[in-house]
Amino acid sequence: MADNPMLKFVGVAQDYPAKRTPGDRREDFEEIARAYAAEKAEEQSARCSQCGVPYCSVHCPLHNHIPDWLRLTAEGRLREAFELSNATSTMPEICGRICPQDRLCEGNCVIEFTGHGAVTIGSVEKYITDTAWKEGWVEPITPVRDRTAQSVGVIGAGPAGLATAEYMRGHGYEVHVYDRHDRAGGLLTYGIPGFKLEKEIVMRRVQRLKDSGIQFHESFEVGRDATLAELREKHDALLIATGVYKARQLKAPGVGTDGVVEALDYLIASNRKSFGEKVAAFDNGDLNAAGKNVVVIGGGDTAMDCVRTAVRQGAKTVKCLYRRDRDNMPGSQNEVRNAEEEGVEFVWLSGPQAFEGTDSVTGVKAVRMRLGAPDASGRRSPQIDPGSDFHLDADLAIKALGFDAEDLPGMFGSPDLSVTRWGTLRVDHKTMQTSLDGVFAAGDIVRGASLVVWAIRDGRDVAEHMHAYLKAKAPEAAKQVAREEAVA
């Protein structure tokens, strides 16, 4: 019997791909880690213990077949590993880069609990599909049958919308994707900086969908270029996957002062520059951190993106002001470590009280916080520590406080589109259909601001519901065509 290639975790230490030095990283927007060599990817995959109940898969929103493609990688059967990885995820190389593995698959790896260090699942996942692209294994979608007599419209070209478009094209439908931006990808393109996700990685995914026959309508705003009712008339089924883009507001004196900006405005400007565009608000310095004292308010992944972007833009100092402590922050601990390595200072247990300055911001008046009882999220609630005011110099203050839903009924000219008290779309969770027949919704516009991997999962799920709806509708549509032809 051949030796078992797996269960090497006792003799082989955990080893992530080498990161570039912090000094090098601060100079550009390239990804911070080098790629695995084939031998190293095989070695690290072989550490998997091949659990009977794989907690890594259980805690992955996509329930990826992680132990199986790790074994295939360890055995050098990389094309099979890619095919298995691609069977459950439409963007495995993207998830491998930006998923918070420390909270999901790797954080629940059994050998992590034994003290040997988790299998480096995300890095292997990234390696598998990057190799597949390099070798030409990633091909356009081949529909299982032609169903183009029926068409599907997808509003929003973020991860949920793109995932749904891919699955619906695979079922054979004519698929149209509508997006407000001039490039598809949503926050993958314009929200996440290149040091976490280089833009070519997203653009090649989008191009594959275009090569598969999916039609993209970019710079298209529902409500301006067409109403929701007009799109319903054009398509047999619609998906709303717009995400949540409305920044949560902070109430504090001076919040409207020049130099106090929204995180997404700041990140979009930076990402547009990475495409070589002219961006007036960046070029005139409004959304450029170069030479400035920067204070970012917030503790999520968006805040981490902002502080690390500011470092790369040449900020004089970068501080992150967060009202809880490190253990109670929502962002990835890996991102905090990366930011600290790159020179970001974290001011824990602190919150803004006011923004100082007349013509433009000159500082942030802050106050110390202490943690009280847990709130509804399970994290301890921050409470102001009286008399603990302090000052931070700031030429640029970035608010990264999270996102809420926009007023879609109003924007889309569709007052009968039902929403929850949070402004997210109300759906029947058995069908993922909204209050409008044939109009489905998925991703953050339903669940609120969440992870990319959950958006992909929602896109996969809603595609099955839409497929079932359209199959049920097909006989009726065929009869209608026959009646019209008979009349003609």
TrEMBL record:
InterPro entries, sorted: DPD_II, FAD/NAD-bd_sf, FAD/NAD-binding_dom, GltD-like, Helical_ferredxn
Tagged with keyword 4Fe-4S: yes
Keyword DNA-binding: no
Pfam families: Fer4_20, Pyr_redox_2
Gene Ontology MF terms: 4 iron, 4 sulfur cluster binding; metal ion binding; oxidoreductase activity
Domain of life: Bacteria
Domain Dihydroprymidine dehydrogenase: 25-136
Keywords, comma-separated and alphabetical: 4Fe-4S, Iron, Iron-sulfur, Metal-binding, NADP, Oxidoreductase
Domain FAD/NAD(P)-binding stretches: 152-459
Cofactor needs: [4Fe-4S] cluster
PANTHER family xrefs: GLUTAMATE SYNTHASE [NADPH] SMALL CHAIN, GLUTAMATE SYNTHASE [NADPH] SMALL CHAIN-RELATED
Protein's name in the database: NAD(P)H-dependent glutamate synthase small subunit/glutamate synthase small subunit-like protein
Species name: Parasphingopyxis lamellibrachiae
